[in-house]
Write a sequence for this structure.
């Protein structure tokens, strides 16, 4: 029921969301994120989501890093954009490109889509992600690949980190806390927290396997969740 109400509340704003995306797509890439953030903030406000950002100062001043976080609920993308003023693009499953109205924003932000069932496409995704990072773009990825709808995470997929390794880019672990509750749970609504950890620089992880890197990042994120419940 909460999810249905979410979309009902958005119906009057869908044309505005769509045409804002079309307008943003005509701008230089660096000027698009403020418009995306304005849109996300509207969606957050309409649904009365209470969002708190913690540890923003941990985000590097230099661009070209990978945000890695847990994936709790339906509103994660909007909540993250509300919490983070640092411009990003993202990696997403190819099915998301078919979502009406919102797909226009995915196109405007040049989101990297890939088929999770194709090893060849996963390699292409990692290469494109690496290229973005080398260009100085900041990228968001959810290594679980699907929503957990809880404070516990599904296992992180090691392949999610190959693009960062290839680009020798910093990795910024972050945690959603309570982000699944508004739409994906019957629990009483709570403040949603987005907690940013200190970066893991290439010099620190260069000798780790992708599996070890995935486990370390996931462990740090779980610690942030547990400490902010």
């Amino acid at each position: 029921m909460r999810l249905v109400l979410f979309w009902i509340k958005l119906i009057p704003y869908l044309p505005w969301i769509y045409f804002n995306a079309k307008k943003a797509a005509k701008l230089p890439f660096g000027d698009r994120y403020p418009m995306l953030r304005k849109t996300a903030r509207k969606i957050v406000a309409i649904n009365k989501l209470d969002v708190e950002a913690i540890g923003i100062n941990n985000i590097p001043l230099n661009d070209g890093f990978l945000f890695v976080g847990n994936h709790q609920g339906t509103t994660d993308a909007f909540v993250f954009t509300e919490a983070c003023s640092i411009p990003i693009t993202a990696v997403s499953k190819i099915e998301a490109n078919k979502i009406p109205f919102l797909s226009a924003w995915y196109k405007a932000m040049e989101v990297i889509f890939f088929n999770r069932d194709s090893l060849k496409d996963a390699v292409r995704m990692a290469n494109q992600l690496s290229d973005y990072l080398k260009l100085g773009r900041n990228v968001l990825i959810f290594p679980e690949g699907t929503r957990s709808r809880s404070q516990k995470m599904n296992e992180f997929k090691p392949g999610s980190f190959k693009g960062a390794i290839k680009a020798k880019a910093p990795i910024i672990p972050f945690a959603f806390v309570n982000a699944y509750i508004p739409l994906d749970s019957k629990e009483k609504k709570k403040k949603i927290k987005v907690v940013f950890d200190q970066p893991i620089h290439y010099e620190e992880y260069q000798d780790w396997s992708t599996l070890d890197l995935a486990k370390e990042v996931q462990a740090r994120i779980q610690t942030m969740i547990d400490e902010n419940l």
